[in-house]
Amino acid sequence: MRTKKAFRTGLLLTLVCGVAPPALASGPADTSKQGDSVHVQPFDLPQSVYLSEETRSVLRRHHALWAAAFNDSCGSLQGANLARLAQIRECQAAAFYASEIYRQVRDRYPVSITSQRIGGVYSEIFTPSQGISRQNQKRVLINLHGGGFLEGSRTVSHLESIPIAGVAHIKVVSVDYRQAPEARFPAASEDVVAVYRELLKTYQPKNIGIYGCSAGGLLTAQTIAWLQKENLPLPGAVGMFCMGATYTGRGDSSFIARAIEGAPADEFAKYLAYFEGTKPDDPLAYPVVSQKVLQVFPPSLLVTGTRDHAMSAVVYTHSRLSQLGVETELHVFEGLGHAFFYDPALPESREVYALVSKFFDAHLGSQ
Question: In terms of Cα–Cα distance, which of 129, 90, 98 is closest to 113?
Fold first, then answer.
């Protein structure tokens, strides 16, 4: 997500619908050499007129704060050996914990954080300082963090877990699942199910909720598929945020977001390392391909933004679930990008925390 008032774009936006919105193109679309694709001329993309002044004010500072929290100077995880991987992750964590975004979320939502191996998997437990509410005493949420199946454990996981624990007054267990480059699919699914099995010894399945953003959103869907494979009872409800039951890189929003971000065409391909060797029709990896898997999903909450590269994946997942009769809610936030609610200063972020709390309260069991 960028915070400049306008974005200079000059990439080829491939719009599957075959029509370029007149307000966005500076000239007529030329389809003579592009087949079903539309070549969109460079244009200036202003902030959405529907954003509040408070949101605009936050976004003016957002990019600098984001860059400080997620320090690119730490190096790339791609191709690093094990020793170097540890150094990079330590560097990233140090920058993250010192960042203003992290300070804001800790100040706004006081929680205690403890660690524990659950089912043999390292996990962090977030408990609201004000205590777990009476109706949530027998409930628990499992958070599956984002990070492209490359990173995000013990950093991004805090941005997803702390506000929800604080607002919902519920215990949140964040799973430090295995990722690339050390691991490959289905390592993360196996880890999540190991934690879930252990929690079933304490909680009824209807009282367990699972949610995650980005890679964690897809992993949430994968977990439901994996639980079916293992003949385990499904949780009471799930939340897929910033991603659906399929991977980004497909659909309009992936191309459009690349242009907004000025990212190269293969920008998101690096996140596919975890899925190396996985077949595109494997429902355990991409549950959206299977009607049998999708039709038994528990109530599902989906959240995205109009400038999220994964918006198409989220919207398509919602459509498929709805067609199959699954109870599902879709919330699309205007003018905001991928994982926007990681910044607690945005009023829309606080709206997301509230709707997540309300959704799980409505759909999890109480006994």
Answer: 129
**Residue 10 belongs to a domain:** no
71 pLDDT tier (thresholds 50, 70, 90): confident
Measured CA to CA in angstroms, residue 344 lies from 58, 61, 195, 275, 295 at distances of 10, 13, 28, 31, 34
Cα Dmax for the chain = 64
As a whole number of angstroms, the distance between CA 266 and CA 272 comes to 10
Q: What are phi and psi of 307, to 5 degrees?
A: -110, 20
Structure token digits, residue 105: 């979320």
* Residue in 272, 294, 157, 308 with CA at minimum distance from that of residue 224: 294
pLDDT at site 267:
55
CATH at 129: 3.40.50.1820
Whether 307 is in a domain gets the answer: yes
- Alpha carbon distance 85, 69 (integer Å): 18
Residue type, 143: N
85: which 2 tokens?
A: 């991987």
If you average pLDDT over residues 214-218, what whole number do you get? 97
Chain centroid offset of residue 315 CA = 14
**Overall domain count for the chain:** 1
> Taken in order 178, 180, 181, 183, is the CA torsion positive or negative?
positive
| Residue 304 domain boundaries | 111-363
Q: Is residue 74 part of a domain?
A: no
The one-letter amino acid code at 87 reads: Q
State residue 286's pLDDT score: 96
Confidence band, pLDDT 50/70/90 cuts, at residue 275: very high
Q: 230, 303 in Cβ contact below 8 A?
A: no
In the numeric block, which tokens belong to residue 367?
A: 């006994």
Q: Is residue 332 part of a domain?
A: yes
Q: Which of 216, 120, 116, 119 is nearest to 161 (CA)?
A: 216
* Residues forming beta bridges with residue 274, ordered by sequence position: none
Distance CA 225, CA 210 (A): 13
Q: What three-state secondary structure class fits 141?
A: strand
Its pTM stands at: 0.89
How far apart are the C-alpha atoms of 89 and 80, rounded to whole Å? 11
